[in-house]
Amino acid sequence: MFERILVPVDGSQGALKALKLAVEMQKTTDAELLILTVYRHHSLREKSMSMVRASDPSNMDDVLREHSKEIAEHAKQYALEHESPRARAFVKAGQPARTIVKFAKDKDADLIVLGSRGLGDLEGYLLGSVSHKVTSLADCPVMVV
Amino acid sequence: MFERILVPVDGSQGALKALKLAVEMQKTTDAELLILTVYRHHSLREKSMSMVRASDPSNMDDVLREHSKEIAEHAKQYALEHESPRARAFVKAGQPARTIVKFAKDKDADLIVLGSRGLGDLEGYLLGSVSHKVTSLADCPVMVV
Questions:
Q1: ipTM of the shown complex
Q2: Cβ neighbour number for residue A140 with a 10 Å cutoff
Q3: Which residue in A51, A140, B38, B65 is deepest, having the highest Cβ count within 10 Å?
Q4: Which residues of chain A have a Cβ shorter than 8 Å from any chain B Cβ?
């Protein structure tokens, strides 16, 4: 039924619920499980916070990337521990909804599972609107958990 | 994984895609498949078309209900023909998104599968916004197809 299930995670409780269901779906269908964490480039973040200027933007990007890697790897670990062996973790920079939809297309994902609400703070996520955008833009079915 | 899958149908191509996937999900999980067609009460329709007055409102409701029954039964037939025997068809009157969400709660559905866009004309559906509303209001996962 599904061959490649994409689950975007951001460390939120909503994303954890989505991950749990995606792992169940993966085991039922024997699909690949693609775990993706998206972070906003410092340049993008700066646009919306033009009053705040970091002293070292490149370092800020590094910190965000490392933090995102940890979130994605942690999710992958969860999958492996729950007998879902076909999990791979990815990290991308960009606007969350568009990056998720583009990644799904690039990887030929045939299902996206995501939380109805994620982090609305540090990561600039507001996954409520991310999930709406993803369901509108994606070519494949989107399961909002 | 799922015990009761709800699929709202309105006769649109989007709803048919949702129905096809819901049937696949039903067969994989051996869940019950609840098929629901929602029509708007004439009183509700009249609100948004206050310039138009039908000569016989009760008759208009009957026509809408019969039409909706046909759509739901047709969808059930599709399920039966595709080896998905646990299908039941329902018809309800009301505002689409709220009626779908309430029905899901009443029936303890643990998954709603619906088209990203449905009929935006006669039935007053505009399922684009219906799917957004349902994903926001539902207590269970919603798969937008």
A1: 0.85
A2: 17
A3: B38
A4: 1, 21, 24-25, 28-29, 116, 128, 131-132, 135-136, 141-145
